[in-house]
Amino acid sequence: MGASQKLQGKIDRVLKKVQEGVDVFDSIWNKVYDTDNANQKEKFEADLEKEIKKQQRYIDQIKTLIQSNEIKDKKALMHAEKQIEREMERFKICAKETKANAFSKEGLGQQPKTLFNCSCLDDLIESSIIYIFLSTKVVGSSRWLKC
């Protein structure tokens, strides 16, 4: 009887830690999307990553507990596992959005470098025209060079 109580205590501790981790993750998640400051977003994203790593350790414990034959009711453990997996998916989405936003903001801040927007295009065209003009003058006026 003592072994089953010990096992139930371990399950209760893991489930409590998982629920606390989910609550912390949710609060950090809200902070990420409430702030407009890029530095704070990066900091909060790093905090989310730390929290996900903690949750991943718990998911390993949960999986070993689920595989145990001593446990009859595994619904709570399976629910906790699903919660962690859901949080991991949310983190992936957040990380992808943060990276995409950083690059698109940088891209929006810069003027696009196309051929038509290049400030040196006029210089290039002008020098090309001069080169073509001079080369035709030299070829066409080879008599002038002989004089």
From TrEMBL:
Listed GO biological process terms: regulation of DNA-templated transcription
Main location, first listed in the record: cytoplasm
Location relative to the cell: Cytoplasm; Nucleus
Gene Ontology terms: cellular component: CCR4-NOT core complex; cytoplasm; nucleus
Domain of life: Eukaryota
Keywords: Cytoplasm, Nucleus, Repressor, Transcription, Transcription regulation
Residues of the CCR4-Not complex component Not N-terminal domain: 4-112
Family recorded in the similarity comment: Belongs to the CNOT2/3/5 family.
UniProt name for this protein: CCR4-Not complex component Not N-terminal domain-containing protein
